[in-house]
Structure formats: structure tokens, C-alpha cells
Amino acid sequence: MAHLLIFLLIFAGVFGCALLGMYARTRLPDHHLDDDSSSSIKLAAGLIATIAALVLGLLISSAKTAYDSVNGDLQRNAVNILRLDRALGQYGPEAKPLRDVLKRSYSNWVDRLASGDRKWIAQLDSPQILSHLSEFQRRIAALTPTTPAQKQLQERALDISDDVFTARWLALMQKNGSIPMTLLLVLAAWLCVIFGTFGLFAPRNHTVLFFFLVCALSASGAIFVILEMDTPLTGVLRVSVEPMREAISQMGQ
After folding, report:
1. Least buried of 96, 112, 241, 249, by fewest C-beta within 10 Å?
2. Max alpha carbon distance in the chain (Å)?
3. Which residue ranges make up each domain of the chain?
4. Which helix (H) or strand (E) holds 195?
């Protein structure tokens, strides 16, 4: 909802500046829009447009990297959960309660993640959840292996559990995004200046207005996509939880 509101505000500002530029064209004296003045204004607007294009490209690249990173962390988490479950299964019937706890807690974690609810996701790294994770590792360490094979499986389970919880924390660190809002506001201001310049030198007809509308939607839509990809656990563009659902279906077998 917050990203949609930002999208609408940026669209209204950018398109409004284009309309303001078209209105200013009718109010300014002719010598303010002569060839020399037009060339100077267009050069300045071209510089701003170049900077805005570079920043927009960098933000899209950064947001896509964040999205892919979280997606990869969650996929590795699903694989490691299966590895952990298999290691506990090979340990023997003594680890059966731990396998049940693992499946139950992981299913609950995935359900919260799949909901996309910011309040629920914010609780995934709460002290209560972290204490449960620590308790689970303590229970693994408390197992009493009677054979060298069980000792090796216990050590493997502890190592894998570290990998599982590390990947989980890495993914949760992206829940609030990493792109500074100030940078997006500056970018939006640049877009307003650019579209205001477009309107200043554009004729007043419906075709021009239509294409200004489309371009304003495209520019503000790009910022909306950046915000969505930068927060891949919530919103419209969420990472898929299907690999984790598949892992849950195979646990305990």
C-alpha cells in the first residue's frame, strides 16, 4: 500500500509538472522562449535527464540484485532444511521429536512469509523466535551419540542448522529494503523538472497530453517496481515460497 501511494504521488507530481510547463508556455513573454533561451533550457534539462537515467538504471540494478539475493537465500534455506531433516533421520529414532519440531516450526515460518503481511514478517526475527532457534540447536547438541556415525551426523546437523539460520537471517534483513528514500525523492524531483521542461516546449493538444500521461505512468511505474523488488518479502513482487513448500512436503520421509 505504501509503495502504491508513492507511485501515485510521483505520477501526480510528474504529470502535474508537465501540465504546469504547458500552462507556463502561454504566460511567459515570447523572448523567454526564443531560440537562444530554448537551447539553454534544453541543454540544462538534458543534463538532468542523463543523470536521472543513470541513477534510475543503478537503482533498478540494485533492486534486482536484492531480489535475486533474497530469492537465492530462501532456496538455499529450503535445501538446507531438507539436508538437516535427512541428517536427523539418519541419526535414528532418538531424533524423531526434533524432526517433528523442525517441520512444524518451518511450516509456520513459511506460512508467515507467504502471507506477505508486514506485521507477521516483522515478528520472524523477534526475540521469541530467535530463542526457539537457539533452543532447537541446544537440543541437537544435547543428543548423546553412541556410535561414531551418530557423532558425525550430530556434528553435520549442527553445521547445517547454522547454515539454515544464517540464510534465514540474511533474507529477513531485506524486509525493509535498502534503497534510501531520500534518493528516490531526489529522482522524483528530477523527473518533475524534466517533464516540466517537456511541457514548456510542447504544443497544447490531446495527443501530446496522452503521451505525457503514458510517459509519466512509465517513469513513476519504474520507481514502483524498484520499491517492490527492493522489499521482496512483501508487496506485489514477492519471492516465491514454492521451493520451501516442496521442502516441507518431503520432510519426515
Report:
1. 249
2. 94
3. 2-20+40-250
4. helix 181-200
